[in-house]
């Protein structure tokens, strides 16, 4: 016998003062139970009932095939109370108490667990009800529904077997819907179902309502550990839950004739946010009929015609619900013989633009504060939806079965175009005005021009921080990666999906927000940067402490970033600058150089080009800081690996192709991620750092002369020892002073480092001696802290996520425990050495809300993310600050 | 003017009670000064003098071109005292005080800094000395030596110009050695040299002895920062030194006729350790003549014939020195007109076998304690020399110019054989009785059979933890890696070195201790595991706290390890077992399997083979623990990458070659070190773990039935989250219980993990919930903590070491700051969760003395290293424990 570990496990609710729970008790009462209690508590018309705490779930499951004695006692007491509250009695044919038994965990798991309605019906009860002429049909209809639900939920009778009985009856009577069956027919159906029950279960349906109730409660608790529910929680990384609560509530019936009905409705339009009720009504029906879609419902506004007074009551209730919960609500209601009951309320799901409009409207209506609006009413991902075009109707293409596959949603937004298979084709097709989708196994820096020319990018390999993902996000270009069900034949320009083959030129639509790859050209709607958006973002800025910068490599990106509210550039990756037409060749000449002299000659050609790039960035960013990272990737990334391309390089550089080939082979590494890159380049070839530092400070002086209050910050990558930073800092300062002397003008000098190697985080105290700032490169830090290559993690990450070995992809959401500890340690040790040290993050995590919350908690000064992610980051930063202040959404975190 | 920051900076010494320093003051007095003071303090016959503290060095160097006033004052006072002590006066023609001015830092930097002898000579002084007939030649000889040294050391006059004057004189007189020049000739040489001085310096040689002294002191201080001295310290990672001290000492002369002489000698034979003086004597000569090798010296024992009383005095002094310093000494002495002076004493360098013998003899003679013997008298690397054959005479092949190149000394000992260029040839040649040296660019697991067949291994790439290095050390096979000056043409079986080409079959000798590659077959001597060795190792075991285990994969290795004193196996790498002839094919079949069923079928073939391997290990190790690591490397390592080999595999496995090729391509990774390996394999393919766990516990039960008190420890590699270990532990325990039930017998159950991912170290508190032990895999931990791929680090590591960015190769010596902090953190957090947690290290650092000291300090329970490194590790562990106890070698750490 399991020990009884909790004292209170039954929570009663009615609208007359007995309610014991409230909305804050989701953890024990589940979402449904807590909201029912809250509504009852403040007097909304809720049918009375009680909730069995989720804290019971474990004990009940461990107790074997029956409920523990003390639970039975608790239920009995609650039932007695409920009989008193309703004036009805379980099993009493005259005034029968009928019950719904519903599951409800703290976090919504739609359709995952079970429900039994109409419980308490027995042969005696149903006959007594049927004896009243107005209820005859209702009685048999409810009875056959109960037999079906009780049989399938409690005893695993196949729902299909019950359906057959119903179908036989309809066929026999030549009708197509349940609604057309009369009382007699339904009675026969019920009898047929009872026979099915006995045949499959081995005994008769229990005629003791208490036995029914105990069995149903047990079944609902057990549904928590059903295979599909466990899988669902695994997939969604849901941990820390007690189990499911069980809600036992007296039934109300919308199927008692033309003065009854059922409706589901939103308090505002979930697509646009426009005020006014939005939903569906069915007269003379039970709630499940709306969901089943058997009859076509009317709009909820039709209540005005059917029952004007009830409609006014509903409008009033909705306004009160919104005001009370501080949010737009999604409610279920039933009208039983002219009386309105609320059966459920919860936050309504909505589009991004709707979320922003609702938040702003609710503040203007005085229902909520700006703090509440920012903290609870808009998801950062919803902000993203406002920035990108999106599909006009996602439901349409899904219902039409046009979704070919689902990959990782690497960069949000919608894109429509014709598929091409290499960067050159993308550029050529785009040049003649075609919209194209670039499809590759994976992308490399050589593909950048083609990626820019494309409307969207689709890759079959790679993860959320793969090259394609990072570059696409930087441009706000929709992108789906790691879509491994496709096989891409780049040589023959074909895309394979099982037996299907898609040729070059086929129209595809990509939903970068959901990861869906859709066949054909879907209609789109524009981005929504209206006044509401601007107002809402202003409130975000008032509430946040974290600064938000952008990762940008080109003046255009910097302008976009500033328009979206970035207060500086947190990461300019100079290597991206080397892939332009005019510079890849000097870059390659530098790499194939065999002497320092040759290398310096090639660098001299690159210097003015880099200087011009930097000047553009400085001008675009004005008085905001611009953090420029010195050359980071291994040099082999700049050389082509195919024979043909090597020949081309040899021809252009006037050197033997063998030289190119040898250099490529010489530069090959077993693990390039851990190889000769980052400051290791600048230390072995100081002339590269000299050139870049000179270009940066010449550009800064140029900008200053043009009147810009310029703030360059030079960032040394991949430092692991303080000696490395001391070395590079000395080179940078020397070049800066040379420029200042030559030009007779100074600009502010700031040199810092990426903290992206675990050792650097640990040795931050020493490293800070040579650093004006730290910027956490959490992509690499995550790679090295976990020992995961982001290019190869696809081999085991899906399995790790589905088995719950990892709660989330650590490249998407910053690991607060391991990587986060290193970041926090580095901050603490760095600041101890240098209290003025500026601290930021520039990895891809800088745009992820959960990661931003971690950064806020650690106490960073700013996050830096893709330009298109800046508004979402501003919101996430504000939410992190507000959540720290305490208080939470009455209906729980979404 | 620099502030005077130290009070006391002059330390006087004489043998009559005035001595102010002692041997413990190396940091200030330098090694030479401290030892002189110590000898003087206890009454050895040392010419009196004084030492200027190294603490002055910085101030003097910062002061510009002259000595600070207070230093001049201090020197003047010390000179006055020295005049009193010697009864001579600086510049006094009658009784001139002549001085040597010598550098001497706390750590020896042979030949790096400067010396001026005979200082105090002037025209007047030399003439006065020369006026005494017995001293005429001596006077002019000493004068010309002074001019040369003063000119070149203090004024940068080219020594070559002085040499020309001397050569001219010899040519003019038709003689070949300096010794044959008479007084008149030497006077002319001196005059010629004075002319050179004036011509190059611009003024006459100073005739004021104090000016000479001040200039010489300044020059010696300055030599601390000479380019070659700075470079030397960089290369040897010497940091934390104050600078050089300056020793000013009254001169004694061995070149005053046949009752004078000079000698260098060891108190015991440095090659064998045999008691008795061992060294060289030159009659009528100064010390530098011995070093210059112009005349052939006599053995030091010849003193017995020349001056029997002095010889007896020397033997007595040597015994006293040994007793005082507790070690065999290397001394310099001068006999001036029948009186013996000691000029220097220090620990004598010696071979490994000599070190062991001397240590044991000194203990037996009652001169030192076993504690002292273990702590100070033998280096762990010297222990290594005892285990391996070595070259009979290293000097011989060096002098003969036979050293072709120097690589990294990856595995110690000497090997002689004929070079071959692939594993198959090595096996074939060895089978017909040839001794072979396997030469490869780098080795892979496919080469293992050939490596085993070879006497030694030479690679042109890779570092101290490359495949070749690790495998060779495990077998005690001499190995040199990363010898990049060679170009290896494996296809044509040729080795290139500049213009030279060595064909297959050429005889090479490898010195794995020094890294020298020697042309030809050098004579060797055997290993020295005599009684002295066993006695000494016994003392080590008495003094150490750390346990020592071995890394061993095969029963033979385990037997070697036990013979060398390993108390268990700390790491058995199961993957090495899969490369045998009989198992590589089932392994490959497992890898190319496309379904779990196929994979399980292949694993079923491997199971009995693995079981037999484990049984062998258990039997060899008896009651000691055997830690077995589950499969770790990425699967692609087991498949061949060349077309021909793939065809062979396809034929053997009866599958299309395309299947093999596709599988190889599918398994290819960008960064395999951070890819699908370690427990990631066992989690995605649990059937592999199931097979290995079953094989381990079946073998353990077999061993137990055969009477072995078996202690298997199953180790899960590459864990980064506690969920990973929980998953694998569950699989292992399940299989173990199945075996126990089936066989009706239990064996101890221990499951633990490698801590080799930074995150695992940080999350050790959680991970320890599922672990009975941690074993630190510091190879991978170093890779990930620094972000260095050990296979690629050769690109920048040499530059990092030479620039002083890194003090040592972190793959050789455990980084105590970064990686060490992670190890310490993991220990602390792990033990907090589970106080009984056993903690060890199994990376290659386990055999490195400095790393062992770090492990001791952190508080690990044991280290595990290659079998051949076990004795050295036992010594290093004892030294770490003794050093922790405090007290140190009187002459400083070697």
Describe what this molecule looks like in 3D.
The structure is a homodimer of 894-residue chains. Chain A has 894 residues and is an alpha/beta fold. Chain A is 45% helix and 17% strand. Chain A contains 35 helices and 31 strands. In chain A, α18 (448-453) links the parallel β15 (436-440) and β16 (456-459). Chain A is elongated, with a radius of gyration of 33 Å. In chain A, 54% of the residues are buried.
Brief summary of the model shown:
With 894 residues, chain A is of the alpha/beta class. Helix content of chain A is 45%, strand content 17%.
Topology:
The structure is a homodimer of 894-residue chains.
Chain A: E1 10-13, H1 26-41, E2 49-52, H2 57-62, H3 69-86, E3 99-105, E4 115-119, H4 123-131, H5 136-155, H6 159-173, H7 183-201, H8 209-223, H9 227-235, E5 244-250, E6 261-268, E7 275-283, H10 287-292, E8 298-299, H11 303-306, H12 308-325, E9 329-336, E10 339-347, H13 352-364, H14 370-376, H15 380-387, E11 390-391, H16 394-399, E12 403-406, E13 408-411, E14 414-420, H17 423-431, E15 436-440, H18 448-453, E16 456-459, H19 467-475, E17 479-481, E18 486-489, E19 494-497, E20 500-503, E21 507-511, E22 516-519, E23 524-525, H20 531-543, E24 547-551, H21 555-563, E25 569-573, H22 584-592, H23 596-621, E26 625-629, H24 643-653, H25 657-667, H26 679-684, H27 686-705, E27 711-716, H28 722-743, E28 751-755, H29 758-762, H30 764-767, E29 773-776, H31 778-786, H32 797-802, H33 819-833, E30 838-841, H34 849-858, E31 862-865, H35 870-884
Parallel strand pairs in A: 14-15, 15-16, 16-17, 24-25, 24-31, 25-26, 26-27, 27-28, 28-29, 29-30, 30-31
Antiparallel strand pairs in A: 1-2, 2-5, 3-4, 3-5, 6-7, 6-9, 7-8, 9-10, 11-23, 12-22, 13-17, 14-21, 18-19, 19-20, 21-22
């Amino acid at each position: 016998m399991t020990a009884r570990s909790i004292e209170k496990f039954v929570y009663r609710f009615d609208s007359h003062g007995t309610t014991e729970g409230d909305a804050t008790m989701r953890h024990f009462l589940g979402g449904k139970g807590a909201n029912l209690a809250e509504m009852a508590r403040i007097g909304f018309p809720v049918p009375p009932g009680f909730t069995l705490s989720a804290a019971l779930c474990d004990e009940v499951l461990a107790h074997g095939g029956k409920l523990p004695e003390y639970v039975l006692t608790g239920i009995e007491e609650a039932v007695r109370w409920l009989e008193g509250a309703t004036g009805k009695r379980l099993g009493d044919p005259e005034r029968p108490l009928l019950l719904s038994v519903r599951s409800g965990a703290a976090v919504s798991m739609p359709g995952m667990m079970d429900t039994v309605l109409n419980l308490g019906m027995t042969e005696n009860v149903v006959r007594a009800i049927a004896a009243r002429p107005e209820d005859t049909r209702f009685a048999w209809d409810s009875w056959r529904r109960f037999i079906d639900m009780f049989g399938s939920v409690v005893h695993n009778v196949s729902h299909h077997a019950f359906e057959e009985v119903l179908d036989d009856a309809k066929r026999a009577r030549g009708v197509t819907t349940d609604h057309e069956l009369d009382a007699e027919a339904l009675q026969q159906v019920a009898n047929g179902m009872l026979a099915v029950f006995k045949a499959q279960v081995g005994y008769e349906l229990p005629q003791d309502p208490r036995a029914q109730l105990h069995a149903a409660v047990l079944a609902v608790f057990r549904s928590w550990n059903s295979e599909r529910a466990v899988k669902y929680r695994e997939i969604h990384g849901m941990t820390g839950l007690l189990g499911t609560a069980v809600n036992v509530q007296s039934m109300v019936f919308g199927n008692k004739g033309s003065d009854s009905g059922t409706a589901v409705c939103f308090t505002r339009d979930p697509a646009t946010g426009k005020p006014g009720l939005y939903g569906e009504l069915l007269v003379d029906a039970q709630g499940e009929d709306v969901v089943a879609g058997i009859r076509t419902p009317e709009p909820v506004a039709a209540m005005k015609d059917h029952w004007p007074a009830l409609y006014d009551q509903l409008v009033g209730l909705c306004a009160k619900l919104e005001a009370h919960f501080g949010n737009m609500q999604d409610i279920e209601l039933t009208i039983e013989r002219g009386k309105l009951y609320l059966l459920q309320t919860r936050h309504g799901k909505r589009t991004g633009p709707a979320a922003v409009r609702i938040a702003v409207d609710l503040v203007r209506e005085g229902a909520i504060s700006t703090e509440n609006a920012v903290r609870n009413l808009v998801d950062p991902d919803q902000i993203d939806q406002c920035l990108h075009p999106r599909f006009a109707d996602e439901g349409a293409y899904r219902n039409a079965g046009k979704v070919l596959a689902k990959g990782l949603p690497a960069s949000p937004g919608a894109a429509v175009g014709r598929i091409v298979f290499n960067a050159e084709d993308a550029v050529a097709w785009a040049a003649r005005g075609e919209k194209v989708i670039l499809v590759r196994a994976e992308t490399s820096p050589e593909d950048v021009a083609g990626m820019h020319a494309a409307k969207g990018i689709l890759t079959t390999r790679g993860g959320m921080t793969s090259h394609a993902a990072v570059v696409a996000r930087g441009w706000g270009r929709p992108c789906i990666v790691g879509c491994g069900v496709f096989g891409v034949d780049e040589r023959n320009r074909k895309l394979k999906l099982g037996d299907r083959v898609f040729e070059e030129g086929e129209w595809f639509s990509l939903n970068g927000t959901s990861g869906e790859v859709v066949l054909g050209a879907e209609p789109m709607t524009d981005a929504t940067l209206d006044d509401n958006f601007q107002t809402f973002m202003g409130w975000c800025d008032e509430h946040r402490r974290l600064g938000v910068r952008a990762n940008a490599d080109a003046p255009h990106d910097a302008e976009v970033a500033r328009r979206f509210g970035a207060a500086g550039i947190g990461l300019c990756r100079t290597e991206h600058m080397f892939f332009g037409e005019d510079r890849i060749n000097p870059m390659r000449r530098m790499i194939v150089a065999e002497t320092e002299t040759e290398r310096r000659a090639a660098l001299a050609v690159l210097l003015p080009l880099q200087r011009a790039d930097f000047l553009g960035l400085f001008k675009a960013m004005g008085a905001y800081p611009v953090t420029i990272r010195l050359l980071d990737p291994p040099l082999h990334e700049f050389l082509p690996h195919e024979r043909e391309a090597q020949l081309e390089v040899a021809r252009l550089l006037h050197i033997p192709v063998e030289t190119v080939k040898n250099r490529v082979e010489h530069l090959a590494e077993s693990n390039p991620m851990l190889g000769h890159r980052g400051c290791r380049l600048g230390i072995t070839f100081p002339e590269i750092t000299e050139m870049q530092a000179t270009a940066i400070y010449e550009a800064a002086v140029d900008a200053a002369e043009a009147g810009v209050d310029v703030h360059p910050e030079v960032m040394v990558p991949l430092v692991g020892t303080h000696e490395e930073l001391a070395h590079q800092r000395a080179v940078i300062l020397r070049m800066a002073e040379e420029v200042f002397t030559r030009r007779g003008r100074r600009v502010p000098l700031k040199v810092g480092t990426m903290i992206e190697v675990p050792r650097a985080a640990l040795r931050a105290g020493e490293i800070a001696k040579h650093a004006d700032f730290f910027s956490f490169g959490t992509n690499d830090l995550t790679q090295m802290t976990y020992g995961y290559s982001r290019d190869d993690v696809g081999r085991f990450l899906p399995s790790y996520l589905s088995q719950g070995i990892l709660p989330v992809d650590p490249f998407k959401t910053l690991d607060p425990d391991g990587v986060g500890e290193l970041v926090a340690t580095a901050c603490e040790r760095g600041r101890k050495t240098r209290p003025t040290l500026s601290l930021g993050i520039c990895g891809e995590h800088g745009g992820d809300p959960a990661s931003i919350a971690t950064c806020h908690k650690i106490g960073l000064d700013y996050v830096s993310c893709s330009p298109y992610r800046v508004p979402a980051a501003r919101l996430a930063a504000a939410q992190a600050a507000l959540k720290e202040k305490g208080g939470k959404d009455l209906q729980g975190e979404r």
